[in-house]
Amino acid sequence: MQLVPDIEFKITYTRSPDGDGVGNSYMEDNDDDSKMADLLSCFQQQLTFQESVLKLCQPELESNQTHISVLPMEVLMYIFRWVVSSDLDLRSLEQLSQVCRGFYICARDPEIWRLACLKVWGRSCVKLVPYTSWREMFLERPRVRFDGVYISKTTYIRQGEQSLDGFYRAWHQVEYYRYIRFFPDGHMMMLTTPEEPQSIVPRLRTRNTRTDAILLGHYRLSQDTDNQTKVFAVITKKKEEKPLDYKYRYFRRVPVPEADQSFHVGLQLCSSGHQRFNKLIWIHHSCHVTYKSTGETAVTAFEIDKMYTPLFFARVRSYTAFSERPL
């Protein structure tokens, strides 16, 4: 027999709320891992019977300053919603849950994860089936990611013009990038440029970018019968107000028919390697030109070939460094 002096601190009692001692049982800390599988229930149980008044956390050292555990639960949950923010930074929420047992419980609040699911899928996530929790749905159900940008690099060799003497013909290596940034509210941005990510990625933090060639639009997620999630988007060029040109106001010009131009994009969402939902494969790309005078629409479909390389996700920390609105 071994005597342990602080045995009362190494076991967790489970007793009825009446405290009459009926049905008492205990669980030692060194039990098998199967009993510790559900950390949420374990932490809730420990906090319930640790103090007469439930407190999420306790200060490690005595201090004259007010501790965060004094705040009401409603205020704490509002702080957690600011951590998630309108950009759905659930990664920061998971990091916050590692602070203590109380924060772990708050980070698993079903309402936070339900609001996140509603913001991503809208009315299509009214029911939990086949998932067991809102958190499991957010982690397992295919979705685009918001804490970074999808990037593709295309490289090809193009034949140049023949020299004046006719002895040789130049060859050019062409490189350009495509960037796609998604937002939780259904907006997106796409940019095709030869500039490298180091200079372009910081400009895509907000939709109010001053980049001229940026395309803005909306997207939606669709899951077909083949159980593959696809992203469909309609994007247009950023509208700019052109100043009136009075220099040639006395000359007659040939009127140019006014038209609205938009691009329709279809992408297939995939996972590669150990990362989830980090790859977008092109399945459709077309240009729609609608003439305002006649209302007719001309559609030009681009052939999806080797020039449309897949886009891979790259996480950008600066996108979630600041919160504009709570969840």
From TrEMBL:
It is found in: Cytoplasm. Pathway: Protein modification; protein ubiquitination. Keywords: Cytoplasm, TPR repeat, Ubl conjugation pathway. Pfam families: F-box-like, FBO_C. PROSITE patterns: FBOX. GO terms for cellular component: cytoplasm; SCF ubiquitin ligase complex. GO terms for biological process: protein ubiquitination; SCF-dependent proteasomal ubiquitin-dependent protein catabolic process. Gene3D superfamilies: 1.20.1280.50. Part of the SCF (SKP1-CUL1-F-box) E3 ubiquitin-protein ligase complex SCF(FBXO9) composed of CUL1, SKP1, RBX1 and FBXO9. Interacts with TTI1 and TELO2; when TTI1 and TELO2 are phosphorylated by CK2. This is F-box only protein. The lineage of its organism: Eukaryota, Metazoa, Chordata, Craniata, Vertebrata.
